[in-house]
């Protein structure tokens, strides 16, 4: 009996592992013959991310996926041990699924793979940056990279570019959000069908929950400005809980809990799965980040309304981060500004991407007097029908 082809995934974050599960177990266009799926989790050093990855690894194993954890960043012993274990898997894999093609570690591992069949699973709005770099034939480096270009980044771009016997599939929920690929590449849509089937829709309760980001920790937003704005919104919208990003600073979260009167929730799973386990408030308040693409798909049919926070571009810490602002959902150019009513261009881009209708939200009565006045957010109904089911591939 001939063994099934093997698809090996290299992932470094809980969201990447989730999206690999969607690719492996869900339904998508462009799916080749069924394959046996394995995941190699390249553990980061951050304790919160490591914990979420271990929890997600258990979820994947329960679904029949082989998962290995590799402490490749613990040098020299961890790196040498991980590399020795990964070499055989990389050289024998029939298909390589990549979570973050910008990762320096993955770029250094890529030459060990013999396959010419590559899949890139969605890694947030960085996927849009990836598409532009592949089209231009540029090395795969992050937007904030400075200095000389690493040779591995240029080799990675050449290696995964389609043509000459190389197959490239990009599996993403951003296929309608300006995701343009080189000729010959295949785009397949991630509608989070596996997660919705596995967990079902959540219990929904009246109220407002806020969704946090790590933009302050990455230096894109001034931390004091972030705390000030979130506290104002929490009081004005009568928010009760704040779902923290796994990389958010504990001191910042303590300030939000104290001054915003918020219950801080530290999810053990990626937010998309955490919310499906419920209960969840019937209104979610988010900044303009990747979750505005994913949550309307995940929560479609639940009755939950997803609110886009206004004027986040004004929070960015300096002109050096204008390019980062361009990667926010709906921000197809640097001059576009999201406001309380969502300008027509941004509104149209978001509705085109998600197929959902954007309406205006009304703030709840504030719980306490707060300085200034927060703009009313734009609200997105997550009650649309889920995307059409697609043929399975794994």
SSE arrangement, N to C? EHEHEHEHEHHEEHEHEHEHEHEHHEE
Strand content: 15-25%
The main sheet comes to:
7 strands, parallel
Which spans have pLDDT < 50 for at least 5 consecutive residues? 319-328, 330-380, 383-394
How helix-rich are the residues, as a percent range?
25-40%
Strand tally is 14
Global mean pLDDT = 77
Radius of gyration over C-alpha positions, nearest whole angstrom = 21 Å
- The termini sit apart by 19 Å
What coarse outline follows from CA principal-axis ratios? globular
Structural class: alpha/beta
Question: Strand order, biggest sheet?
Answer: 3-2-1-4-5-6-7
With helices defined by DSSP (H or I, 4 residues minimum), what is the helix count?
13
General description of the model:
The two termini are 19 Å apart. It contains 13 helices and 14 strands. Residues 319-328, 330-380 and 383-394 have low confidence and may be disordered. It is 34% helix and 18% strand. Strand 4, helix 4 (104-109) and strand 5 (117-121) form a beta-alpha-beta unit. The chain has helices at residues 14-25, 47-62, 77-92, 104-109, 126-136, 151-160, 193-199, 223-236, 250-260, 271-277, 291-298, 322-325, 344-354, and strands at residues 6-11, 36-42, 66-70, 95-98, 117-121, 167-172, 186-189, 204-211, 241-243, 263-265, 280-286, 305-308, 358-360, 378-381. The longest helix has 16 residues, at 47-62. It is of the alpha/beta class and 394 residues long.
């Amino acid at each position: 009996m001939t063994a099934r082809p093997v698809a090996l995934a290299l992932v470094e974050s809980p969201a990447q592992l989730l999206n690999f599960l969607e690719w492996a177990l869900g339904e998508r266009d462009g799916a080749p013959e069924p394959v046996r799926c394995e995941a190699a989790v390249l553990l980061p050093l951050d304790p919160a991310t490591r914990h979420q990855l271990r929890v997600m690894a258990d979820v994947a194993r329960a679904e029949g996926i082989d998962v290995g954890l590799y402490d490749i960043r613990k040098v020299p012993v961890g790196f040498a041990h991980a590399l020795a274990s990964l070499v055989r898997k990389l050289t024998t894999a029939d298909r390589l699924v990549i979570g973050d093609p910008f990762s320096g570690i993955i770029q250094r591992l890529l030459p060990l793979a013999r396959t010419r069949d590559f899949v890139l699973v969605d890694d947030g709005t960085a996927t849009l940056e990836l598409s532009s770099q592949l089209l231009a034939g540029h090395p795969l480096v992050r937007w904030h990279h400075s200095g000389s270009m690493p040779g591995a980044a240029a080799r990675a771009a050449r290696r995964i570019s389609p043509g000459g016997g190389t197959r490239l599939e990009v599996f993403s929920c951003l296929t309608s959000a300006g995701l343009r690929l080189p000729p010959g590449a295949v785009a397949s849509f991630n509608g989070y069908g596996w997660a919705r089937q596995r967990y079902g829709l959540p219990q929904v309760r009246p109220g407002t929950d806020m969704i946090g980001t790590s933009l302050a920790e990455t230096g894109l937003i001034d931390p004091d400005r972030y705390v000030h704005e979130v506290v104002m919104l929490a009081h004005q919208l009568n928010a009760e809980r704040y779902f923290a990003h796994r990389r958010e600073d504990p001191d910042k979260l303590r300030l939000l809990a104290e001054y915003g009167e918020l219950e801080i929730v530290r999810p053990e799973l990626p937010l998309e799965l955490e919310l499906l386990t419920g209960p969840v408030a019937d209104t979610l308040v988010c900044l303009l980040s990747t979750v505005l693409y994913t949550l309307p798909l995940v929560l479609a049919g639940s009755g939950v309304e997803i609110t886009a926070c206004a004027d986040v571009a004004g929070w960015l810490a300096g002109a050096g981060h204008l390019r980062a602002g361009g990667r926010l959902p709906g921000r197809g150019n640097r001059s576009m500004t999201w406001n309380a009513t969502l300008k027509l261009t941004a509104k149209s881009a978001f509705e085109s991407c998600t197929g959902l209708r954007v309406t205006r939200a009304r703030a709840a009565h504030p719980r306490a007097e707060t300085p200034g006045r927060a703009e009313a957010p734009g609200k997105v109904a997550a009650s649309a029908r889920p995307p059409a089911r697609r043929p399975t591939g794994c």
